[in-house]
Amino acid sequence: MKEKLKRLHRFVFHSSTIFTQLVAFTALVSIVPILFISSLVFQKITNLVTEELVNSHNQLIAQYTSSLESKLYQYNDSLRQITNNTIIVNTLMNKTEDNNPRSKGTDVSTEVNKSLHLESPELRNCMIYSNNSNGKIYGSRVAMMDGATRESWFPKSLSARGNYFIYMAGKKKEAILSLKQDIIYINTADYTSEFIGMVKLDIYLERLLAPTVTFGESVYSYDVIALDSNSDIIYSSNQDYNSILKDLSYEELNSHKTNYYKDAMVISPEHEINFGLKLLFLFNNSQLNKKKADVQSSFLPVLSVVIGIIFVTMFAFTRSFSKRVEKLIHKIKVAETGDLSITEKIEGNDEIAVLDRQFNTMLEKLDTLIKKNYIQQLEKKESEFRNLQLQINPHFLYNTLETISSIAAVKGVFLICDLCEKLGGNFRYSLGKNYGEFVTVKQELVHTQNYVYIQKTRFENKFDVFYNVDPEMEDKLVLRFILQPIVENAIVHGLSKNKGKGTLEISIKEVNHMLVIKIEDDGVGMSQQKVEEISNYINDTHQAEQTRQGIGIRNVNQRIQLACGIEYGITIESLQGRGSCFTITLPLLQ
């Protein structure tokens, strides 16, 4: 049964060309959208219309809340200015020459009027209540605290949780938002503070919270219900909607993006504004219903156009896709013949274009590998030829040096005998016949000492060499032939140009679990610019070899980093006329 299903699957999906399969599959899949497109698209468009309308509502809400919070901030800021007003504070503290209660009250009232624009229709009153019983003061904006205690709002001010409280005032029992701030006198002499009174600003909640009339309309387009911190209604622009809180709590209304109540859409902001005010905004659904009707009336023509576009794009896409696949198949067939040249590339960023680029990259690498293998074969033959030559040259050189040494011994020129011995040792070390890639520090030092002996003879003992080697380091392993190029650079470019006799010091020791080799000379040194040029040159593997100076150092640095890691290598320090110091860092190898 399983095998039959596999054969059926292959017959249905893989028995014809990709173009035929794509056309059949797309046509089959299009039947489902045709059957359900009415309900799906209509629902989607309806949701978009609703979301667009909600977004516009949210913009109105954002403007409303931003304007409200801005006003409340300005009122609070004005109260802060009043409490920090020096004239007001000094007057309340009896620090003025005029002690008349009425005159003082007039001065304080004037300062309050300056700080607060009381002609705003939202503002009911602003009063300062003095707590200084030693200095009476009365005015249109100032009174004594004992008078405030007899007011109906005073108990609410004491029980207020913050710098505000809400109370009902007047015959109409209008809701008043009262902002208050304490006036504190700070004695700069002893840094003590004293409560000398408070300022209270009364705002009509109905005027403050009234919805904004949209431009071009005579009435506002939405209603507002304001709740206090206990979720009790303190303002409503439409009393008909007050019963909404009987069915749903504010928390339930706030847990959803939108809610519907009667003929209105209810939206609750995601945060409370200043003073714990909670707001509910109600928008009439007539506008939404009208837009839904418009969508429904224009739905059928749009549906017909969409179906036509589906069939046209289906054919165009499948045809384009199949052509791209055919082009890739053609390139593969050409590559099978052995022709690795890259033909026309397939443009785009889809999987077929990526596959084509990968295939082209594979062809390039394959072609490169074939050419590289051919070159390696040629280099191998050339290397074999050079090895045949090297098998002859060393014996000839050793025999020649022994002949020269014998003649010098007969003639009594023992210096030439010593030079031949040192040079022969260096030949054997350089050819590496009895050495590996790594040698001991002691072996590397013997080779370096032979080289130094030859150079001292060449320059007629123009310099002295000192070796400061930790005995424990002599058995550590280092790369073969790394000291001689550095020493050569120090002698040829530093010490040989000295007018007097110079010194060269080679020190080897362990520092921070690393093998550190320093080659220091007191030669002519280098400028900082020259040091930077050589440092950049020896560390840049891509820079061309423009000068002979530094090539040996560069080769040593690259060998160290290839064999031991990029954290090891050569660093250079030098001062013009003071000498140079080359530091080699290596891992501790036993």
Produce the secondary structure layout.
Blueprint: H1 2-14, H2 18-83, H3 86-92, H4 101-115, E1 123-130, E2 142-144, H5 145-148, H6 154-159, E3 164-169, E4 174-187, E5 192-204, H7 205-209, E6 222-227, E7 233-236, H8 244-247, H9 250-254, E8 259-261, E9 264-267, E10 278-284, H10 286-297, H11 299-336, H12 351-411, H13 414-431, E11 438-440, H14 441-458, E12 463-469, E13 477-479, H15 483-495, E14 502-511, E15 514-521, H16 528-539, H17 551-564, E16 569-575, E17 579-587
Helix vs. strand class: alpha+beta
Question: What proportion strand?
Answer: 15-25%
List low-confidence stretches: 388-392
The CATH class of the domain at 435-587 is: Alpha Beta
Describe the main β-sheet briefly.
5 strands, mixed
CATH superfamily of the domain at 435-587: Histidine kinase-like ATPase, C-terminal domain
How many helices does DSSP assign? 17
What can be said about this structure in brief?
The protein has helices at 2-14, 18-83, 86-92, 101-115, 145-148, 154-159, 205-209, 244-247, 250-254, 286-297, 299-336, 351-411, 414-431, 441-458, 483-495, 528-539, 551-564; strands at 123-130, 142-144, 164-169, 174-187, 192-204, 222-227, 233-236, 259-261, 264-267, 278-284, 438-440, 463-469, 477-479, 502-511, 514-521, 569-575, 579-587.
Describe this structure in words.
It contains 17 helices and 17 strands. Strands 2-1-5-4-3 form a 5-stranded mixed sheet. The chain is about 55% helix and about 20% strand. The two termini are about 70 Å apart. With about 600 residues, it is α+β, with helices and mostly antiparallel strands.
